[in-house]
Amino acid sequence: MIQPGIEDAIKKIVQSTLNLPESEIDSSTNLRDLPGVESIKILRIVASLEKKFDVRLDDQVVFRVSTIEELAGAVSKLVEERRTP
Amino acid sequence: MNTTGQKTPRPGEGWSHGVTNTHYDQDPRLFQLFLDPSMKYSPGLFPEGNEDLETAQHKKMHFIARQLGLKGGERVLDVGCGWGSLVCFLAREYGCEVVGVTPAPRQADYIRARAARLGVAGKVRIEVGHFHEVSLPTGAFQGMTFVGSITHFHDKPGTLVRAWSLLKPTGNVYLSETCFCNAAKRREFESRPGTKFVLQDTFGWAELLPVSDYVRYFEDAGFSLRGLVDLTEEYFRTIELWSENARRNRQALDAIEPDLCERLLKYFEISNAGWGYTSKQYALVASKRR
């Protein structure tokens, strides 16, 4: 279950890291297909996310990430786990 | 930055200092345009978090001296001494007799002039050449440093064997280096374009290992290990400040070589993106004592 706000926050991070207009970014877009993207930029997006949500994503997610939706799902899951006693 | 078109040797194919020099033996003015005034080309230390670059580098050099257990007046060997920030610092602040080794003649000239300017010419000796080829006294040094230099050496185990023989029986070594996070990361990322851009295109030749390899080389050479420090965040902050300096001096950098500023920034960006994901910066301290 993707938490509201997380996907939007990711879109904002992607937008500012890649200098893209909002219209270019869709939840199901593969990040690797976005203009101006390279693995370095994806790492920077992941680092910003980890900082913002205070989570640590698994290497499988970090190095294999494809869509915003998928990233949001991974972050949501970690945030959720933190709240569950 | 490697503009001389020299062929990069395969690991084990002779010394790497010819190609490494394509980076380090450039005009010091290039480096003055992004480093701090001490010209230290390695991470600073930011215990307060808001230090400027010069202060952070100064604190870092005191940190290295503490790690080596220096009280003052000892003989110290700095292998891969760059533009002599640490050599001159230890001679001035700790009264040490310091020998610096660099394969880059320009660096040697720069340091000698600098030591004279600082009034420590009598305490500083610079040997030009490869560490394995220059003549150095056996069992003579209380402290030895490899600050970001061993990455350029083909024979890393042999380098630490020689280090052991040059130290006094109670001597200490401080070695700091960029490492892969682990062996699996090395296998996966060693041949990626970004890695190649930094290690081959920028430096001529360098090789990153996981820190566990260095631990083993220290053990095999007979050392006792005394400490390991994670300096990754310190390097990230240092490179952010270098990038700021480079951007501020874009015109002057591009006057040296077209597009130089962008290439530097790309090297900084790749380096900083990888910290903690593919790479780590570690310092190891080892001792010859039993």
TrEMBL record, chain A:
- Taxonomically, the superkingdom here is Bacteria
Q: Where is the Carrier domain?
A: 4-79
Q: What is this protein called?
A: Carrier domain-containing protein
Q: What organism is recorded for this protein?
A: Cystobacter ferrugineus
The top of its lineage is: Bacteria, Pseudomonadati, Myxococcota, Myxococcia, Myxococcales
Automatic annotation (TrEMBL), chain B:
The GO annotation for biological process reads: lipid metabolic process; methylation
Q: Cross-referenced Pfam families, in alphabetical order?
A: CMAS
* Gene Ontology MF annotations: methyltransferase activity
Instruction: Output the superkingdom of the source species.
Output: Bacteria
Q: Where is this region: Disordered?
A: 1-21
The UniProt entry, under CDD domains, shows: AdoMet_MTases
The alphabetized UniProt keywords are: Lipid metabolism, Methyltransferase, S-adenosyl-L-methionine, Transferase
Read off the Gene3D superfamilies from this record: Vaccinia Virus protein VP39
> Does the UniProt entry include the keyword Methyltransferase?
yes
The record ties this protein, via SUPFAM superfamilies, to: S-adenosyl-L-methionine-dependent methyltransferases
Coiled coil (UniProt feature)? none
Q: Which family does it belong to?
A: Belongs to the CFA/CMAS family.
State the protein's name: SAM-dependent methyltransferase
